[in-house]
Write a structure and sequence with these properties.
Length: about 250
């Protein structure tokens, strides 16, 4: 019987592990280094997987907790809150004074405005040489029909002072912010090109001219903005608000 069992065990393809087999395996010198290397490989793979998943979450727009060093935007906001608010510069949209003594003069012809009604447009037409011409300024005359002093509407520099055969003496003053004023139909000019004048400086005396003969003694007053003729009332103070009236 023993011989038969021995023969069977020897010829079987599956060999029975004898008692003490694990001890023999663990007793091998290479088994523990191999186990350590396997465990280390598993740990390293886990670390790499965690790092890659963290980087991926950062690249997908997931909000990350701000670190204490990221305080510059807060500091800038605090500085801006502590800064005094900017105060807008107040610039009068009517910086020009009435160019004569307000209590002694009046407007006798207005500016020709394409947007005004027909009656106002007709009143702003100048008749000359059998034709009608739109008035590019306003005409100011004294209440007693006599000559009067013409004054600078604002401080500035004289850029023209000459006699025109149609409009009489003309004076042009260049002001700030692209404004300039023209004074025509003057009997004379008391300033010259290059002079600087203050508001209220006397420029000359009102007189007559050929082009606006029907108006008699008067001042032809124009306002230009950036070289374009504009309605003087846009920048001209009312007579009662002009310094010469006070």
């Amino acid at each position: 019987m023993d011989e038969k069992r021995k023969a069977t065990e020897t010829s079987s393809p599956i060999q029975k592990v004898q008692s003490g087999g694990w001890r023999r395996i663990l007793g091998k010198k290479w088994i523990f280094p191999a186990m350590y290397m396997g465990i280390a490989a598993i740990i390293l793979a886990g670390v790499m997987w965690y790092q890659n998943s963290k980087d991926f979450s950062n690249n997908t727009g997931v909000p990350q907790k701000a670190t204490p060093e990221v305080t510059q935007p807060q500091q800038v906001a605090e500085v801006k809150q502590n800064e005094p608010s900017a105060v807008p510069v107040s610039v009068s949209d009517k910086p020009l004074a009435w160019p004569a003594k307000a209590d002694e003069t009046e407007k006798v012809m207005g500016f020709y405005d394409d947007t005004s009604d027909k009656k106002e447009q007709e009143a702003a037409l100048i008749q000359y040489d059998n034709s009608y011409w739109p008035n590019t300024g306003i005409a100011i005359a004294s209440k007693d029909k006599k000559s009067f002093e013409v004054m600078a509407a604002a401080a500035g520099k004289i850029v023209k002072a000459e006699r025109d055969p149609m409009l009489g003496y003309q004076v042009e003053i260049e002001h700030k912010n692209g404004l300039s004023t023209v004074y025509a139909s003057l009997e004379d000019a008391k300033v010259k090109v290059g002079d600087t004048v203050d508001q209220g400086t006397i420029l000359g005396m009102a007189g007559r001219n050929v082009f606006e003969k029907a108006l008699g003694i008067h001042l032809h007053f124009e306002v230009h903005k950036n070289g374009e003729t504009v309605p003087p009332e846009q920048y001209l103070l009312k007579k009662e608000d002009t310094p010469s009236a006070k």
